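writing this on my phone so excuse typos. first protein, seq and then structure
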Amino acid sequence: MAPENAEIKKLAGHEPNRQGVDPPVRSRAQALPFASIEWNAFESLVYQLVRKDATIEDALRYGTPGEAQYGIDIIARDGKSNDLACYQCKRVQSFSAPDIRKAVDTLLKGKFATEIKHFVLCVTVSLQSKTLVDEIAKQKQLLRDRGIAFSTWDASESGDLCLRLKSHPRLVDDFFGPAWGSAFNTPAPVTRAGAHELLGRLHAAWGSSPCSVPPDRETDAATLKRRSAELERVIPAMTGMDMRRLAWVPTGVVRFPDGRLLEVARPVALMCSAFDTTEAGQRRNEEDDPREVMATKVSRQDAERAACDLSDRTGLRWRLPTLAEWWMGVSAGSGRAPSDASASGGLWLRDVRPNAWRVRPPPAEAMEWVIDDMSSDGVIGNRGHWRNLHPHIRVDWVGFRLVLDYFEGAGS
């Protein structure tokens, strides 16, 4: 009877149509309560925004309470032109046209009047009213005649303060609290503590390894697939990295060409290929092939700085791979040296065929930095060739890749 009733309802038009239904629109907040923070916090916020400007080479807060500051709270130098920019911060409940005139007049009577090239007035209220916009235009012309550019950072939705802070969720969280951070910004990357807490829960639920059979018990293929799929949802959310760039390296033992047995003590995620020139911030020559070119002339210290930078940005621990992790990944667990895949020679990463684990060995003419228990400063090639190098040296044929140590500190 039940199937018959379902069919009758469908024919009668009662079957709900779940296709083509738009999700609800939930816009994020477009303005922040600047007037609710203390004056010194507002000045500190502006200072940090100035420091994050890529064109600024140096910035300093100018003066302390009680000192004559000539209407200046922050001074900064442009990295290219060496021009001086001055910022005045006003934490107020209202701001009028006379207040704008007074701010400009104070600047022009101060010690920087003949040196300044850019004046920025930062206020905790909106400056969008017609009267204020007209006054700002007058003061811009006055300063332009003196060779000074004039900008305003106000608290309106379209003001520079809000527009700039949209790109800096951690500043919003620091100065306005996590509730405003969630309401105003796209969620920031998971913090190191949050990442470890989440991975600790996964670790406790899964056991010793998310992607290989634990040595003390049998694990069916469906369970392994489920574990891998769960991590592939978690890691991109934490790192912003496409999972196609990473390959799971499980625990186990692999034989190195010199006869040593190398052990991977805990699972890691290895980058599928070495950094290319774009990722490493290296300039390509115009005649370079458009395919990815392996980044070389990288010292071990350069590689470790890159790992620290990526760790800071993602809240997880990135580092150079150990020799065991690298060889396990490059040989796909077999211990056998991969066949030379870069038949055309050179450093073209796309000429190198990936193995069964999606890991691309380095091109035949290249080597990569790894950490070895016997000699911590060394590089290795795709045939297992090993060389000791000083950590400061940069060589034409040496690059690097990193591993994500996603159980580092898990549960702690």
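second protein below, same order as before
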Amino acid sequence: MSLQIFVVQIYDYFLNLQANNFKSGNFTNFFKLRTMEIHFNDLNTIPIFATNPFEKKVIQFVQEWFSDTTTVSVQTSGSTGVPKVFEVEKKKMRYSAEMTCRFLELKHEDSALLCLPVEYISGKMMIVRSIERKLRLHITEPSLHPLQNLETEIDFCAMTTLQVEHSLDKIHLIKKLIIGGAAVSEALKKKINEKLLQPTTGNQQPTTIVYETYGMSETLSHIALKEIFPNEQQYFQLFQGVEISQDPRGCLTINAPQLNSEILQTNDIIELKNTQEFRFLGRADHIINSGGAKIYPEQLEAMVKKVIPNEVVFLGIPDERLGQKLTLVIEGTKSVVLNEKLSNIHYQPKFHQPKEIVFVEKIPRTPNGKVNRRALLDFIQNS
């Protein structure tokens, strides 16, 4: 057995177009290339041709995967440290792919959609899952609107929070959607629920299941999932073969030898329910120490996002008296309506109330969509 790859070019046909349009060379409105599709289901390899730089990168990775090399290069996002490139064993990526496919009960010939950059582990693992489970992989160039041309149902897709935010009108076409890159805000959860619970033709019940992921490049994408629609779970569910514990700070320690030969020590503060379930509370390196009180910004951000739709970030700005001044940064423009909503937020305890509120046009993000707190802090301090 080897790989058989079919490239399917999907076209928009216009019923009223006459044959003389072809004779006159007027092809523009007759068809439009929509997506590339790869079937990982058989042996013979046939040539495939990229129509854009992203498809070329996908093809290059597929060729690399089926080469004699035992490792592939993976780039980190740089959201929790300096971006770096490291080598990953293919057998460990296969194990990761199998864990996800087993958890989500994906079957041979199910359809999947790739809309994430293949430089990062998130995009690479979508391809590996498709190869290992022999899925039909649809490929669309990463953007904020990856579903804009989607017209048929897809069994499985991974997206970032920003992509979901801009694709709410189409997520009902995804049967199993996993969201990563950043924590799913309360505001986004609400939007997902409202969209998927809207009445449909024939009053059919929604079939989409949405999960939030927990993982990192070093764990080869996610090691745990948490359902957020139609049920909203409070704790991440670990995959089989992964063991976790806490260090003295309360931070998560990961032991997953099939994914990484090293025991991984994170800066993620967690609540450990049992050996298979945990809840993320915040990052130790994000803790704000204001007047001697330790404040977890992620918890405050989740609370504020239940009240206003804007992206928000809590920062600790250096302060001579307090050490760090708790500052709320809001993406967008100040308004009477927004101020009224903010004034109705009751912070408990009182030191959780921000000392200052700053509005910015755009909150900086890393290439894969995560909030870049360091860049935002630098911007605020230099403004």
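The first helix runs from residue 20 to 23. thats all i got for now
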